[in-house]
Amino acid sequence: MTPQRMRILSAIENSDNHINAEEIYAQVVAKYPKVNISTVYRTLELLKQLGLIYEIDLGAGHIGYHPEGRGHHHHLICRKCGAIIDVGESVLFPIQAILLQAFDFNAELRHLAIFGLCKNC
Ligand SMILES: [Zn+2]
Ligand SMILES: [Zn+2]
User: Fold this and answer.
1) Cα of 63 to ligand 1 centre, how many Å?
2) pTM exceeding the 0.85 threshold for the entire prediction
């Protein structure tokens, strides 16, 4: 791990919401001015393959990141105001059971994005 990669990983670990590549880049470039955004994208790809971070589909082409340590959870995403509600993995266990029973399919539901409307909308 190079210092730049460590910086990218710690930006994700220290963020308490769903940090995106641009926000990560802004933090890294403040410390390493020579880093460009394509390095950030390449590093994110690598960290993802290493299983150190998870990529989350936030809808409308937006991607956010979580550190591995935050565990698996799903996201309820309001398509109107963009609010994101984290829900525990266990919420979808019944669906996994149904898919296994009905289709003999062992679904890996780890970071699912479910779109809809929140209570304020
Ligand atoms: Zn909403
Ligand atoms: Zn989350």
Assistant:
1) 18
2) no
